[in-house]
Specification:
By secondary structure, the chain is α+β, with helices and mostly antiparallel strands. Helix content is about 45%, strand content about 20%.
Amino acid sequence: MTWKNEWIKWITDSELPSQFKKQMSEMTKSERENAFYKQLEFDTGGMRGELGAEPNRRNIYTIRKVTAGLAKYIEENGAEAKKRGVVIAYDSRHGSAKFALEAADYYKQQEMTLYDGLIELYKTYSYYKKSLTSFTLKGKNGFEQIDRIVNSFREHSPAEIASAAVEKIEDYQTGRRINLLTAQQERLDLPSSNVLKFWLQDGSWFALRPSGIEPKVKFYFGVRQGTNVESEERLKEIETNVINMVESIIY
């Protein structure tokens, strides 16, 4: 789904408050694209983004997704962890108390336990898995090898990863998103950075980012499958395929 279709879906939603629709209608084209081209992600730095009604913004809807992620973490730590429950806190930052109340109240309104809510979300949105791996090399030659890795993926992009066609490539250095299946190009309205992201046809993705201050490159992976086992297996397949490609470049 394109960002334009996503914008239309949101602004025509009868349950979206009128003040959010007004805010959306007043956006410029570039603001709309930035707000709707992806879902706001929760990573090692937490969930960072502007406040707003859109999927790439912090709001009650994205807070509910974070709540599901917390439920998943609790589940992975066993029955005893689920029995102890969860503590929800907030600080002085704008909207923090409101978002904390939303997280606490959401499942109560649904008359669900945290675990029940998690299972319902999985049924609706599937199982998401992410991982991170990195290559650290040594000395001046290490920097040259890191450059070789990044340049190889940029200049000789793979057409397929783990039996799935590469559909889109986002190059944050050139500010371009290219659809390899349609040859369509779009501009990324984001700060320039030496980062590449590859989207596969099955919805999986991987990205790479060199350090810049040390001979190191990080690889990020994400998948979505119908079951937890399928997600874990798919994540491993993509990781292995990409790591083999990197090793063929440097060894």
